[in-house]
Design brief:
Helix content: 25-40%
Number of strands: 8
Distance between the termini: 63 Å
Shape: elongated
Strand content: 15-25%
Number of helices: 3
Order of helices and strands: HHEEEEEEEEH
Radius of gyration: 23 Å
Amino acid sequence: MRKISGFTLAEVLITLGIIGVVAAMTMPTLMNSTQGAQYKAAYKKALSALSQAVTLNVALDEWSFADATGSTPYTITEMLSSRMNVVRNEVGSANIKDAKGQSYKVSVSTVGKLQGVSGTSVSIASDNTTLFFNDGIMFTYPTATKGCTQADGADPKVCTGFIDVNGIKAPNRIVQCDNADASETKCEIKNPTDVYPVKFYDQTVLPNSTPARAVLYSK
């Protein structure tokens, strides 16, 4: 007589239940990590693309952020639109809505306050211009921006704005340190978000907060 071994139905169900619990606990973390990596890559790509656009404009038309006058044809919008794939631009925020039809608004936590941000949220100002690129990235800055330079012999002026690497899509949260210490050497960011403050001048585009720099320079 042969003896056949196997699992009972109860054992199989218990095993499947354990697998389900473990999956439910780990999947959110895995998804956040994957999404954070995508935001990080898109952020680096956006900075590079903006810098290259200005460099190309200098080579072809011989003017950069330093020469912008805020008037046609020397505006930031015209320069970037001629060197990048801009699908549309908006002045103010009236026509910038999220998937639910709500006005675009960026969330800011009270932990690790960021440079230039106060309160719990910040909206696109009525006098801002926002550019939407064909890869889904959004860049917004004050429309009257001009004369952004740190060149010798000129009055130094650094201009500012911010990048949202996935446009109006959620989460619309400015990147910040996970820990309360937002200093340059101790800022920790495990899962980057989608909004990054930037500063720009001459032919340069750089991060404009400790967390934004931490994401850019991390491995």
